[in-house]
Design a protein that fits this description.
By secondary structure, the chain is of the alpha/beta class. The chain folds into two domains: 187 residues, Periplasmic binding protein-like II (D-Maltodextrin-Binding Protein, domain 2, 3-Layer(aba) Sandwich), CATH 3.40.190; 144 residues, Periplasmic binding protein-like II (D-Maltodextrin-Binding Protein, domain 2). It is 31% helix and 20% strand. Strands 3, 4, 5, 6, 8, 9, 10, 11, 13 and 14 form a ten-stranded mixed beta sheet that branches. Strands 1-2 form a two-stranded antiparallel sheet. The chain has a two-stranded parallel ribbon with strand order 7-12. The longest helix has 17 residues. The chain is globular, with a radius of gyration of 20 Å.
Length: 344
């Protein structure tokens, strides 16, 4: 992305977080230059307390036990950030809640929020138009507040020694157009693409929408239930390939995260160079390539959002308080510790 884009996005974030979450009329969408970031408002003003250092400096924090849920990508944030919130603000109790049926994820979380089962939701993708439409039909709006930067990492078996893949090549692999590693300069070995199912979460939806351009997965794609299962398949299958949130992939010992590029001349690794070989792991582990994620030089980046219900009730207060905590200096440091890139 260009420097101008960074300036535009920074200016927008300052406006959105220091002043309001949208000075736009009647529920309009305010699209930024990066189409993955959108603020939604029904005209009301929502204040983000962003000039604060820590969780305890946030005012008007509700008291009680509040259900929240959503993206599995957020698991390390729940571990490293939410646990500290619970310790420092014991009156603000959070309980992660999974759907009664089906797997947890961004889509089920947003659906549960709309249905009144959650106070707020965590998402690894932006709100969909149909979700906003459903919310409006029930008399409220949804607002998404970006709090962290993430990227999608492409992983293969260490046996696959190629310099990287372009986004177009990744698309062709997952839509069934490229079927052998030899077509990409690798060994004469069939490619086995692994993925979680489209309905399983925001990461898959993001990948489907932004990498596959909404084309169908190829018939050769094998579906797994979890990222843990997908990565284990790569250890067993020399021709396998899998994608997931970068913090779930980059530090793993028995797989190889691939550099990717918009063009073959500009491969960007999701890890800091030099690459830590599997033989050196776990004494050493690869780390996230923070700078390229923050500047969007890495081709497949996205934002993580807190989804808040604008209904002038307690749910709105809970969601805004939580988002404000994550945007404090303490929250951003803990987000960095959890493996994601801070947005502020």
């Amino acid at each position: 992305m260009s420097q101008q884009h960074d300036k535009n996005e920074t200016a927008i974030l300052i406006i959105a977080f220091l002043t309001t979450l949208g000075l736009v009329c009647g529920g309009a969408f305010l699209w930024f230059k990066n189409p993955r970031i959108v603020s939604v408002s029904n005209g009301s003003t929502q204040q983000i307390q962003s000039n604060t250092n820590g969780f305890t400096s946030i005012t008007k924090v509700p008291t009680g036990l509040f259900n929240y849920g959503g993206s599995t990508t957020w698991a390390t944030i729940r571990r490293d950030v939410d646990s500290v919130i619970q310790k420092e603000l014991p009156q603000f109790q959070l309980r992660y809640t999974e759907p009664i049926t089906g797997a947890p994820g961004s889509s089920p979380g947003i659906r549960m929020l709309i249905q009144g089962q959650l106070a707020f939701s965590q998402s690894s993708r932006q709100i969909k138009a149909e979700e906003q439409s459903t919310a409006r039909s029930l008399g409220f709006e949804l607002v998404q507040i970006p709090v962290a930067i993430d990227g999608i990492a492409i992983a293969v078996n260490p046996n696959i020694q190629i310099p990287g893949l372009t986004v177009a090549q990744i698309k062709n692999i997952y839509t069934g157009k490229i079927k052998n590693w030899q077509q990409l300069g690798g060994p004469n070995l069939p490619i086995t693409p692994y993925s979680r199912r489209l309905e399983d979460g925001g990461t898959i939806e993001f990948f489907h929408d932004n990498v596959l351009n909404k084309e169908n997965f190829g018939a050769n794609v094998q579906f797994v239930s979890t990222t843990t299962d997908g990565l284990r398949q790569l250890e067993r299958n020399k021709g396998g390939i899998y994608y997931a949130s970068a913090p779930e992939v980059v530090g793993q010992c028995q797989i190889r995260p691939l550099p990717i590029g918009r063009q073959a001349s500009e491969f960007i690794p999701p890890y800091k160079e030099p690459f830590v070989q599997p033989s050196e792991c776990p004494t050493k582990r690869n780390q996230i390539n923070v700078d390229t994620f923050k500047t969007d030089k890495y081709p497949i980046t996205r934002r993580l959002f807190v989804i808040v219900k604008q209904n002038d009730q307690s749910d709105q207060q809970v969601g805004m308080a939580y988002a404000s905590m994550l945007l404090t200096e303490q929250g951003q440091k803990l987000i960095s510790k959890s493996g994601f890139v801070r947005i502020r």
